[in-house]
Amino acid sequence: MQRGRVWLVVLVGLAVAAGAVWTFFPEELRRAAGHAEKALEPGPVITPLRDVAAAPARFRGKEVTVQGTVTSTGELVMSGGQASRFYTLKAEGGELVVDVREGLPARGQALLVTGVVSEPPPGKGLAPRLAEVRRERVQR
């Protein structure tokens, strides 16, 4: 009977030790066991494009992320050779003109765009502007 109790105490001790190791090193153990989980990073908070278009003063100077479809693209070349590139991003309820430094996206692309909002000149009936910081294509 003594021998059975010794084995029981040894097994309980091993179980407690294994639980303690799992508690203190869970990520390393899961990785070693082949069960590593990819850490999910929260995505950006998406501001409805219609909200920015309807009240650009509320967002002026702020960085926002909006989603929409490219409806047109353009490039304006100044007499000194400097170019200004832009595209129109449209979603239900509004549109924005997005200023870019790099290449223009293709028309019809669905994009998630982060940028800084500026208001259009008053009384001109122009869409608010967004100075693009980054963009990524999205699946429809």
Short description:
It is built from 4 helices and 5 strands, in the order H-H-H-H-E-E-E-E-E. By secondary structure, it is an alpha+beta fold.
Report on the structure:
By secondary structure, the protein is α+β, with helices and mostly antiparallel strands. The protein folds into two domains: 31 residues; 89 residues, Beta Barrel (OB fold (Dihydrolipoamide Acetyltransferase, E2P)). The chain is 29% helix and 35% strand. The chain is built from four helices and five strands. A five-stranded mixed beta barrel has the order 1-2-3-5-4. A hairpin with a 5-residue loop joins strand 1 and strand 2. The N and C termini lie far apart (70 Å).
User: Which architecture of the largest domain per CATH?
Assistant: Beta Barrel
> Count of helical segments?
4
Ranges where pLDDT stays below 50 over 5 or more residues in a row are: none
What fraction of residues sit in β-strands?
35-45%
Output the strand order for the largest sheet: 1-2-3-5-4
Provide the succession of SSEs: HHHHEEEEE
Mean pLDDT: 82
Which fold name corresponds to the CATH topology of the largest domain?
A: OB fold (Dihydrolipoamide Acetyltransferase, E2P)
Distance between the amino and carboxyl termini = 70 Å
Report the principal-axis shape. Answer: elongated
- CATH-level-4 superfamily name of the largest domain: Nucleic acid-binding proteins
Radius of gyration: 28 Å
CATH C-level label of the largest domain: Mainly Beta
The count of domains is 2
How many β strands by DSSP? 5
The residue fraction in helices comes out at 25-40%
- What structural class is derived from the secondary structure elements? alpha+beta
Q: Summarize the biggest pleated sheet.
A: 5 strands, mixed, barrel
